[in-house]
Write a structure and sequence with these properties.
The protein has 189 residues and is of the alpha+beta class. It has one domain. Helices cover 30% and strands 23% of the residues. Strands 1, 4, 5, 6, 7, 8 and 9 form a seven-stranded mixed beta sheet that branches. Strands 2-3 form a two-stranded antiparallel ribbon. Helix 2 crosses helix 3. The longest helix has 15 residues. The relative contact order is 0.20.
Length: 189
């Protein structure tokens, strides 16, 4: 199923305080309850950046359609605490991948997170783009235009880190180590 982000979501992507995020995206409180019922506690940890935290741009969609993704996770070689940048870089290198965003359970808290999913020969696996291991994955899978829209939004979040010559310009070379020998095209533009 292709998912396109809801047009009704607020699109404020500046750094915010945690309180501002929960006020701007009230569905996060309901989502925290839903995640707590799955496991852990009703605590959502947001992605921290200089100046605050990042909002969850697809919060309403996560609440309405998000689900546990029960797949084997393959550890990645990306930067620690850079799941969004790592996932965008890997997805742009191999657009056959599925980009996923949502939350992961670590300890007793749920963390805002992004990862990729590879489908091959009828098998599906999560490609965890950080060195961490998580107990559960909950979220949405994005393909096609839905993935393109999420990538645009994530790029605004991540900012210059993914621009040519930026901090993550060479991340594709690092992430390529996940599956050595796989020929891949260079990302476009």
């Amino acid at each position: 199923m292709q998912i396109t982000p809801s047009e009704e979501e607020p699109r404020d992507i500046r750094p915010m305080t945690e309180e501002e995020v929960f006020e701007t995206f009230p569905s996060l409180r309901e989502l925290a309850k839903k995640l707590g019922e799955i496991g852990g506690t009703e605590i959502i940890k947001l992605t921290t950046i200089p100046g605050g935290v990042l909002p969850v741009l697809d919060a309403n969609d996560q609440l309405a359609r998000g689900e546990i993704i029960e797949l084997q996770a393959i550890p990645g070689a990306g930067e620690k605490n850079q799941c969004h940048a790592n996932s965008v870089a890997l997805f742009e290198e191999d657009p056959k991948l599925i980009l996923a965003t949502g939350f992961v359970l670590s300890g007793d808290a749920w963390y805002h997170h992004s990862w990729c999913i590879r489908e091959s020969c009828g098998q599906r696996v999560i490609i965890e783009t950080t060195p961490e291991k998580y107990q559960n994955y909950f979220g949405l899978e994005y393909r096609g235009k839905g993935a393109d829209e999420i990538v645009k939004q994530l790029r605004v979040w991540i900012g210059p880190k993914l621009e040519p010559g930026g901090e993550f310009d060479t991340i594709n070379q690092v992430l390529r180590k996940i599956e050595p020998g796989t020929p891949r095209e260079a990302p476009h533009g």
